[in-house]
């Protein structure tokens, strides 16, 4: 019984984490192209490749992180244990996605502001 609960918890965690990661990546990819067009308006031919490279790096880091967080020494035994485990692991994944996104935005804002200063 405990093994079934553990496997079910892990499956829910993986499905939700991967769905959130892919959905956020898709949104960033779609909306990020407009931002990159502004940054690289002198050389728009590199916007799509840069956007794809950023998306690939995003997926590698975040999906890898999701799998690293899968490891857990204790096995949930009750529904409360399942909720606590899922909320802590999903919370870490979501916070990580937000921090990485914020870091990327700050990096590109820095690049953009330096570009404006040079003009």
Structure description:
With 119 residues, the protein is mainly α. The protein has one domain. 86% of the residues lie in helices and 0% in strands. Helix 2 packs antiparallel against helix 3. It is elongated. The termini are far apart. The mean pLDDT is 87.
Structure described in brief:
This protein is mainly α and 119 residues long. The chain has three helices and no strands. It has one domain (2-118).
Task: Please supply descriptive tags for the structure shown above.
single chain; mainly alpha; 119 residues
Structurally, the number of domains stands at: 1
Pattern of helices and strands? HHH
How many β-strands, per DSSP?
A: 0
Nearest-integer average pLDDT: 87
Strand content: under 5%
Distance between the termini: 66 Å
Fraction of residues in helix: over 70%
Low-confidence stretches: none
Sheet having the most strands: none
Task: Count the DSSP helices.
Answer: 3
Shape: elongated
Structural class: mainly alpha
Rg, Cα atoms, Å: 19 Å
């Amino acid at each position: 019984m405990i093994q079934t609960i553990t496997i079910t918890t892990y499956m829910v965690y993986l499905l939700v984490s991967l769905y959130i990661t892919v959905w956020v990546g898709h949104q960033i990819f779609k909306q990020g192209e407009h931002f990159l067009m502004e940054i690289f308006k002198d050389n728009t031919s590199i916007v799509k490749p840069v956007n794809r490279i950023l998306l690939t790096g995003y997926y590698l880091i975040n999906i890898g992180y999701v799998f690293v967080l899968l490891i857990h020494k204790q096995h949930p035994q009750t529904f409360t244990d399942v909720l606590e485990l899922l909320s802590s692991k999903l919370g870490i994944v979501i916070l990580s996605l937000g921090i990485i996104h914020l870091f990327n935005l700050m990096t590109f804002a820095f690049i953009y502001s330096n570009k404006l200063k040079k003009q």
